[in-house]
Amino acid sequence: MLQIRVKPGIEDRIRGFFPWIYRPEIASYSRKPKKGELVVVRDFGGKFLGYGYINPEANIAVRILSFDKEEPITPELIKRRIKEAYDYRKRLYINSNAFRLVHSEGDLLPGLIVDVYGEYAVLEFTTYGMNTFRDAVLEAIVELLRPKGIYEKTSSVAKRVEGVEAKEGVLWGEVPKETTIWEHDLRFVVNIPQGQKTGFFLDQRNARKFVRSLVEPGDRCLDVFCHTGGFALNMKKMGAKEVIAVDLSPLALEVGRKNEKINDLSGIKWVEANAFDYLRKLDSEGEKFDVVVIDPPSFAKNRHAVPNALRGYKELCVRGLRLTKTGGYMAIFSCSFHITESHLLEVLTQASYDVRRQVRVIAKTFQDKDHPWILQMPNTLYLKGVWVEVV
Ligand SMILES: C[S@@+](CC[C@H](N)C(=O)[O-])C[C@H]1O[C@@H](n2cnc3c(N)ncnc32)[C@H](O)[C@@H]1O
To answer: How far, in Å, is the centroid of ligand 1 from the Cα of 231?
Structure first.
C-alpha cells in the first residue's frame, strides 16, 4: 500500500484526531500516488498515524478513516460504519421519516452523504476516494433500509475539486419525481431529482421546531430564503395571521405552495424575489413583523470569501432588525463552515449598533443531531443560528 510521511509538527494534529492532511503538509511518498487509492500515513520518523485515502490533485489530499493500526480500510469497514450510523439515528427518536443517515466526517465516513426520505434514499459522493467504495455503500444501504429507490446526486464541489465523474440519477429501484415526508405534524413534498441539495434542508429541523415557541396566534411573520416553506409552514401552523415567504427559486416556491395545500393551511404569501432587494423594499415601506427568520445559502464557499460574506450577513441583520417589531424576534443563520458563531455574533452586534436597537439573545440553534460534528474538527459544525429579541 502507498505510504506517506507528513512534515514534522503535523503529527500532533493527526494524533488529536484531525483527519485531513493538506497537500503541502506531505513530506514524502513511497511512490507516485494514484487518485483515490488507500494510503498509510506516517509521521516524519515513520511511526504509524492512520489509514486514509488520497487525492493528489485536491488541496485536502488525504482523509483519514482509521487511526487504529488494527483497523485498515476495507469495504467491510465502510459497511460497518454505515450500520453504526444507522443504529445511532434509531436512538435519536427523530420526529420525522426523513433524516440524514450518513454525515460524512461526522460519521467517520468522509466524502459520503446519505439522506433518507421515507422509502427513498439519496446518496452523494463528495470525494474521489469515497466514490471508489460505491458498491459497498450501495450494498449497505439496500441491506439496512430495503428502500424502494436510491438516487445519486453529485455536488459541484465533488466535480470541480475532487474530479469525481458526474453521475446523477436513479441508482437502484425507482424514485418518483416527488415524494412526501413528514416532520412533526407537518408534511412536506420533496422533489429529489430537481430539488436543492438532496431535496430538503433536514439540518434545520430543530430550528423549525423552535420557531413555534415564538409565534403567537395573530402574528405577522417573515420567512426569508424560505425554500419550500420550512419555517413559513410552522409559523402558519401556530396561528400566524400573515406569513410572507421569500425565495429566488420558482421551483422551491411551487413546492412550497403544494406544502401549504397538503397541510390544509392557507394565507401564506409566496414571493419570488432576490431577498436583499425585497427586504430593502419592505423596509422602505415601513413594514414590521413579530417574527423574522433569515436562512440564507452559504455565502462563503472558501475562506477568501469571508469578508464579502460578512458584509452580506450584516446587511441581512440590519434589514431584519429594522423589520422586527419591538418585543419581536429575529433569527439569522449561516450554513458556511467558514463563518463561525463569533462571526455571526459580531455582525449582529454591528448591525444592532447601526440600527440603534437593544438586542437580547434568546437562543442559539445548530444543525440537528442527525448531522453530528467532530469536536476536533470545528469546521464540521457548519450550521449555526442566533435568535434574538429586539428589546
Ligand atoms: C438554506 S436554504 C433555506 C432553507 C429553508 N429555511 C428550509 O427550512 O427549508 C436557502 C434558500 O435561499 C434561496 N436563495 C438563494 N439566494 C437567494 C436570494 N438572493 N434571494 C432569495 N432567495 C435565495 C435558495 O433558493 C434556497 O431555497
So the answer is: 12
Residues linked to residue 325 through DSSP beta bridges, in sequence order? none
Pick from 117, 227, 233, 315 the residue to mutate for probing ligand 1's pocket: most ligand atoms within 8 Å of its CB: 227
335 is catalytic: yes
What is the distance in A from the centroid of ligand 1 to the CA of 102? 23
Query: Across the beta sheet with 2-6, what order do the strands follow?
Result: 20-22, 60-66, 48-54, 38-42, 2-6, 26-29
Could you list the residue range(s) of the whole structural domain that residue 270 is in?
A: 201-390
Whether residue 54 is found in the same domain as residue 18: yes
CA distance 198 to 301: 18
374 with 16: CB under 8 angstroms?
no
Q: What does DSSP assign to residue 7?
A: P
**Could you say which of 127, 148, 179 is where a domain stops?**
179
192 belongs to a structural domain: no
**How many Cα neighbours within 13 Å face the side chain of 238?**
20
Q: How far is the CA of 194 from the centre of ligand 1 (A)?
A: 15
**Nearest ligand 1 atom, CA 200:** 9
Give the residue-averaged pLDDT of 185-190. Answer: 98
Which pLDDT tens digit goes with each residue over 209-221?
999 999 999 999 9
Q: 274 CB under 6 A from ligand 1?
A: yes
- 373: cell is 460534528
Residue whose CA is closest, atom 11 of ligand 1? 225
Write out pLDDT tens, residues 237-254. Answer: 999 999 999 999 999 999
- Counted domains in the chain: 3
Listing from the earlier edge strand, what are the strands of the sheet with 220-224?
268-272, 242-247, 220-224, 289-294, 324-334, 384-390, 359-366
* Domain containing residue 239: CATH number: 3.40.50.150
